[in-house]
From TrEMBL:
It comes from Alteromonas stellipolaris. The lineage of its organism: Bacteria, Pseudomonadati, Pseudomonadota, Gammaproteobacteria, Alteromonadales. NCBIfam families: agcS. This is Alanine/glycine:cation symporter family protein. GO terms for cellular component: plasma membrane. One of its GO terms (molecular function) is amino acid:sodium symporter activity. The chain crosses the membrane at residues 12-33, 80-107, 144-164, 185-203, 209-230, 300-320, 349-368, 389-407, 413-433.
């Protein structure tokens, strides 16, 4: 009965209703136009802000730690298993639409991260907290909508998404080594507990160390495989384009599947517009001292996640022959593809990679849920204990659940969050445009880029006057 309800909601959001596909495309185009193509016009500036981005304080984590924390949540099953799901259900053309939603999503990610930094607050420990619930409450004065978003986020990032990550880890390890799912689930719980007990700072330190290492290592392997198969690259790229527009023989009927699965899995991977990343953006000490700097940093995260890491997995799968059918295939398709390139060691490599990728997401998901405890006055010992128990329990459930059911619940949670968040950020377009123009003008004129309250007109106000 629960699964029927989840399927009905997903059918409206992702299926025949296509509500989210339309909203995401429209939102990406909207902010691309309103911000003057910031993701293309200021592409190099994203990277320049990494210089000096490792400065933190007792109030917040560094910009680099915020980037790594957001990437640790993004970089997980979506990059390895999600790409495989997209290809298995939508063909190679799904990758093209994954790229398109990433390019548009960079503008959306910029917009929501600016708001996350602008409307941040201090918790009882004096540390920065923020996210959609905070800018909806303060900027739009819509407490009921802020509460609705927080509940969706608790359901998604606090519980369901970690179950998805655990499910993929156990599936990969079971496929490679026949490890029993329940024991793998217990191991994940034990390791996650050791890290999340340190709160956001502990999670950020873990992400800062692990994410660059695992990301660079994975991309280097993908580049090696691509180089070895370089003669097949032109044909593969042409196949992606033809499949994306239904130009293959008997491929017209697959056009909808390519678009749907490419956008759906692209969003799940890079999370642009879903409202998750603003939590990491809000926790950062910006450099330069302007909310828009976090927009650039998190826009870079969308690029690295989808255009670099997801593309790496897609090339690995497609250069091995790919797969397109009506049956959902996840991490095992990626493992089989890697094995065709690297021999028996391919399965071992993917099992290790997905375990590390997905585990970082498990840990970062906890931080996003914890950030919203402040909204309900539960950022205390009892509130955190109750939240932690529920979070760990869902990891154990996800480790043993059936893959289609887990992914369906994740799609519903992500979809509901995205509907609320996109509605809010479009509503707050005047603030986003105003504060962005302030940054652009100061940067272009050579003036010191710094923001102070009153520099431009914003909707609502920060409840404790941080800015």
């Amino acid at each position: 009965m629960i699964y029927d309800f989840v399927s009905a909601v997903n059918n409206v959001l992702w299926g025949n209703g296509q509500v989210l596909i339309i909203m995401l495309l429209a939102c990406g185009i909207w902010f691309t136009v309103k911000l003057g193509g910031v993701q293309l016009r200021h592409f190099g500036h994203m990277f320049s802000l990494l210089k000096g981005s490792n400065k933190s304080s007792k109030e917040g984590i560094s910009s680099f730690q915020a980037l790594c924390t957001s990437l640790s949540a993004r970089v997980g099953t979506g990059n390895l298993a999600g790409v495989a799901v997209a290809i298995s259900l939508g063909g190679s053309g799904a990758i093209f639409w994954m790229w398109m939603i990433a390019i548009l999503g960079m503008a959306t990610g910029f917009a929501e991260s600016v708001l996350g930094q602008l409307y941040k607050v201090r918790d009882e420990n004096g540390e920065f907290r923020g996210g959609p619930a905070y800018y909806i409450k303060q900027g739009l004065n819509k407490t009921w909508l802020a509460v609705a978003f927080s509940l969706c986020l608790f359901f998604g990032y606090g519980f369901v998404f970690s179950a998805v990550q655990a499910n993929t880890i156990t599936d990969a390890l079971n496929n490679a080594y026949q490890f029993p799912s329940e024991y793998t689930g217990i191991a994940i719980i034990a390791l996650a507990s050791l890290i999340v007990i340190g709160g956001l700072r502990g999670i950020a330190r873990f992400a800062e160390f692990v994410v660059p290492f695992m990301g660079i290592g994975y991309v280097l392997v993908a580049l090696g495989i691509t180089f070895i198969n370089i003669s097949e690259l032109p044909a593969m790229l042409m196949d992606i384009i033809k499949s994306a527009f239904g130009l293959q023989e008997a491929g017209a009927g697959a056009l909808g599947a390519a678009i749907k699965n490419g956008i759906q899995r692209g969003l799940y991977s890079n999370e642009a517009g879903s409202g998750s990343v603003p939590h990491a953006a809000a926790s950062a000490v910006p450099n330069p001292n302007h909310p828009v700097s976090q927009g650039y940093i998190q826009m870079l995260g969308v690029f690295l996640d989808t255009m670099v890491l997801c593309t790496s997995t897609a090339f690995i799968i497609l250069l091995a022959g790919g797969s397109s059918s009506d049956q959902m295939e996840g991490i095992r398709l990626t493992q089989d593809a890697m094995s065709s390139h690297l021999g028996e060691g391919g399965t071992d490599f993917v099992a290790a990679a997905i375990s590390l990728f997905a585990f970082t997401s498990v840990v970062a998901n906890y931080a996003y849920g914890e950030s919203n405890l402040h909204m309900f006055k539960l950022d205390n010992r009892a509130g955190r204990a109750a939240y932690t128990i529920g979070y760990l329990g869902m990891i154990y459930w996800g480790a043993q659940a059936a893959m289609p059911q887990v992914w369906a619940m994740a799609d519903m949670a992500l979809g509901l969050m995205t509907v609320i968040n996109i509605t809010a950020i479009v509503w707050m377009t005047p603030t986003i445009v105003s504060i962005s123009k302030d940054y652009f003008a100061k940067r272009d004129s050579g003036e010191k880029v710094e923001y102070k309250t009153g520099d431009c007109e914003i909707q609502g106000k920060s409840e404790d006057g941080i800015w």
